[in-house]
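Record type: monomer structure entry
Structure origin: computed from sequence
Chain ID: A
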Amino acid sequence: MSSSGAGGRLPCGQADLRRDGGGIESRVYAEDRARGFLPSIGRLQRYQEPPEAEGVRVDSGVTEGAEISMYYDPMIAKLVTWGLDRDAAIERHQDALDRFYVRGIHHNMAFLSAVMAHPRFREGRLSTDFIAEEFPEGFSGRELSRPEQQAMAAIAAFLHLRQSTRDRSLERQDLVVEFDREQIALVAEPAGRNEIRFGLGDEVVVVAGNWWPGEPLAEVRVNGRPASVQVDRVGPYLHMWHRGAVAAALVLRPEVAALSALMPIKEPPDLSKYVLSPMPGLLVALKVDVGTEVKMGEEVAVVEAMKMENVLRALADGKVKAIHAEPGASLSVDQKIVEFE
């Protein structure tokens, strides 16, 4: 028998322990992947943990409506899965991430799912340099392969038709699904109860499911394989989340799609002359004044959030034209602090 830390006797020894399957744990954090995984502050407007299932556990201390503030660690939950082996545990983990619905703040679940799908991770060839080596430019989202993009297009068209036809019978029709200006043509026709067959050139994708408009999670079957897809309607777009890939789909009639392809692309505003707050926080120090000549890399301001001080530096040489926030101010994300000429 072995001794515990308190000097008592443990009920088993090392020889009595045996390996039983594989387990995976990840930490779901309120982080913004587009900003180098800085904390994301705000209210959990929607919070729906994956449903109870064998080999899935969620340890959390939040509920829908809770606030992720600048004063505490931004962890939302720990997700733990078990399987008969490592691959089974990973598959369960990805399924659970697909069903973990959080809105109101940014989170790291797309990144977690991308890590789970990475060949090196699945093989267990890990080190403390894994993220730096495999994501040297940071993480901007997982790109869809061509078969995945076709499947997502068929799912988007399926959800669109479920919403537009409701109780009316579906007739054969041509559709175009647009992802970030790339268009995929489909031919939709009924294939059975709650089932639609989509022709994509030489490929056929059959989607079945009972999703109804307004439900945040679409449980469907794609060519007989189950898939869980998170769905948000944002204006005319269907924002879809599956296996760490985020896609904004626009489902159009062919004649409308032809006009959509002619629409100009709006250029983002030029903010290079500003120092912006990368997160909500407190401006604790300002290192420059109006008229200060600043060299690239010099400190400009210090923002405190999550009990950490974040030093903001100039990205180029310049002269300060205006100060938009004073020390002691509570800053929102992307709020202007300093403006250069």
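Annotation 1: The CA atoms of residues 111 and 244 lie 6 Å apart.
Annotation 2: Residues 146-165 form the longest helix (20 residues).
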